[in-house]
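Reopening this ticket.

The earlier resolution said the output was attached, but the attachment link was broken on my side. Pasting everything inline this time so it's all in one place.
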Amino acid sequence: MFEKTMSIFSENVESLIQSGKPDLKKAEDGISLCIKILSKLQKQVDKYDFEDTQAEIEFFKNIKPFPMSYLIHFTEVRSCELKLPKVGNSHKVRYLEKEIKKINRFFSENNSFVNYMEQNHNYLDPQFFSRSGKMDFSFSPTINYYQNPEFSTSHDMLWSKVQALYRYIHYIREKLELIQPGSSGDFRERQPNLLLWSGSKTSLVEIIYSLYLKGDINHGTADLKTLISAFEDFFNIKLDNYHKTYSEMRARKDPRAKYLYQIAVNLETKMRQDDEK
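Inline output:
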């Protein structure tokens, strides 16, 4: 019952990210968008509840944390934009480095839980992501409204913050690079200039969109722009107008994902050949 609501939210938040608005305006609009969707989700839960415990776990583990993590992310970005020193690059870099330390400290303090989630474990899910689990809040959000016992579990907020900080890390990296190119070198390994994408740009966009939609990078928290930037860095290529490229892919005759189909066929052929040896 949440598919349509989440699909609309996903489109709206992606549109906001791509809007070109200043970061502070993006954050303020994002906060408003997230609060509206969370309020709508809460009303749906209040009205319909869940068919069983598994549906409840699915909601608090994979559905609610999506907009909640964006709410936390946009809140962190807004705070950073307002508190970032206005004059002096060295002061700005120092402030952002303190933010990095805060992020590292959070992940260090919650290492066991982060490891549990990153290893895709589920044996503690009934305790972590059902309302019948122990209500021992590991993370106290500034927006206490969302700790309503009927709309919260012991760890859905913590999981939301983990995902939010994955996004916030990217924001900090980009901010550092704008202020002082190279200053984020300790925060992200610099990619070598040895790998060049020699296929068509359209083929690479096919791969990136597929990875984005599958949601297996940063637990699905990496937005499309982030993935595009990462592939541009890694393969030393510029992918302009990738939204237009996607529209052109949609206009193709089947198979529309031609490159993905081709590489899948190549892999299957290679495995069959190896089986026959």
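Reporter confirms the inline version is readable. Residues 139-145, 187-193 have pLDDT under 50 and may be disordered. The chain is about 65% helix and 0% strand.
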